[in-house]
Write a structure and sequence with these properties.
Length: 435
């Protein structure tokens, strides 16, 4: 591949790191990325993320910093990112506030919990929250016992029904039994539309706050291809990389018109981020987030979101033709969870074979998985990254064939043959900025 990205200062100062960076550049170019939580940021986003804003420390919020020197650019950048976040999702700034400082989606969720929930062992009694089980498609931060969310806070967990859809009846039953302060909806490996309206009715009936974690589907919501959580929720968190195609970072939205004690929940969550969770924000990331939010508000992005779903549907239906079982039977969004048990193989082995064939996926637990997480009985596939490269339904049909071929015959010779074919295809579809 011809080097399109240049790092002259890095190559001069630290050739060892420069070489490793080039190896990663090569990997991203020659491998087909089907990890649902990964994507390719634009050159503009990457430039902003390596800007001189990294030199500025700025504890606090615009107009109320603990260090001088933020008024020229840092404050305006953060305010612009806040406004663009609200605009992207069509939110009234008199009703909703946006926080753009959290370093990751996990930290964003922790900030919300810390701001609104009394933790385990609290003198005045702990609060209860509801979240989706990890092995049913939820996230570590939705109450899993090894995560801070499960260790520090009392979570009850809901799952899926026999068809592989969110079990809303179970959510209702748990809400009735435990009277949660907070209900968390959203998922990490769930391929169907999340019915935010149903969650909203349950939360309202039981006087609970409703939080949606849309880390995976934020770009689809922004692109108009998935229903919005905002008419039904009080808090919404998301990462900015996945389907939004931005830098590693997070956004928190919260209502300004709902009080929780003396303050609004937005004020409490702002304090939950700083000083409750972290010090100065990563200003270069805030700048890059602002760029990605501008990009996501363009007509081309809405077209992209539609193609992501079309590609996912095509890949899913063709995998089914090759005998793969898909949890819930299909997909409405950018990802699918594949049950590998019909092929008598585990997710760790399958993901390794696919990697050797030039196709990157992740192992993933399936509902009621008989195997431990280190092995898992499934793999998760997503189409955001390959769609960003310009691949379409023709390529998705081909990848379904290659995925079946690699898992059905993982001989060294066959995996090498597939990898060469994948490389030839990837060469035709360079990631943005790699041309």
């Amino acid at each position: 591949m011809k080097r399109a990205i240049k790092y002259p200062n890095l190559e001069k100062t630290d050739p060892e790191i420069a070489e490793l960076n080039l190896l990663e550049e090569d990997r991203q170019f020659w491998y087909a990325d089907f990890i649902a939580s990964e994507n390719y940021a634009s050159p503009a986003v990457r430039e902003a993320g390596s800007s001189v804003a990294t030199n500025k420390y700025s504890e606090g919020y615009p107009g109320a910093r603990y260090y001088k020197g933020s008024d020229a650019a840092i404050d305006p950048v953060e305010i612009l990112a806040q406004k663009r976040a609200l605009k992207l999702f069509g939110l009234d700034e008199n009703i909703w506030g946006s926080n753009v400082q959290a370093a990751s989606g996990s930290e964003a969720n922790l900030a919300v919990y810390g701001a609104l929930l009394k933790a385990k062992g609290h003198a005045n009694g702990e609060d209860t929250a509801l979240g989706m089980r990890l092995d049913f498609g939820g996230h570590l931060t939705h109450g899993f016992h090894v995560s801070f969310s499960g260790k520090l806070f009392h979570f009850e967990q809901y799952g899926l029904d026999e068809k592989g859809y969110i079990n809303y009846a179970e959510v209702e039953q748990l809400a009735e039994k435990f009277k949660p302060k907070l209900i968390v909806c959203g998922a990490s490996a769930y391929s169907r539309v999340v019915d935010f309206e149903k969650f909203g009715k349950i939360a309202k009936k039981h006087s609970a706050l409703l939080m949606a974690d849309i880390a995976h589907i934020a770009g689809l919501i922004a692109g108009g291809t998935h229903p919005s959580p905002f008419p039904h929720c009080d808090i919404v968190t998301t990462t900015t990389h996945k389907t939004l195609r931005g830098p590693r970072g997070a956004l928190i939205f919260a209502r300004k018109d709902i009080k929780h004690g003396e303050k609004t929940i937005f004020q409490l969550i702002n304090s939950g981020v700083f000083p409750g969770l972290q010090g100065g924000p990563h200003n270069q990331q805030t700048m890059a987030i602002a760029v990605c939010l501008r990009e996501a508000n363009a007509p081309q992005f809405r077209s992209y979101a539609k193609k992501v779903i079309k590609n996912a549907n095509t890949l899913c239906e063709n995998l089914k033709k090759y005998g793969f079982d898909i949890i819930s039977g299909g997909t409405d969004n950018h990802l699918m969870l594949v049950d590998l048990r019909p092929f008598t193989v585990n997710g760790e082995d399958a993901s390794e074979w696919l990697h050797q064939a030039g196709i990157v996926v992740n192992k993933n637990a399936i509902p009621n998985d008989p195997l431990p997480p280190q092995k898992a009985s499934g793999i998760r596939l997503g189409t955001p990254a390959v769609t960003t490269r310009g691949m379409g339904v023709t390529e998705m049909r081909q990848f379904a064939k290659w995925i079946h071929g690699a898992i059905n015959n993982p001989s060294e010779e066959n995996l090498k043959r597939i990898k060469n074919q994948v490389k030839a295809l990837c060469k035709k579809f360079p990631p943005p900025g790699f041309e």
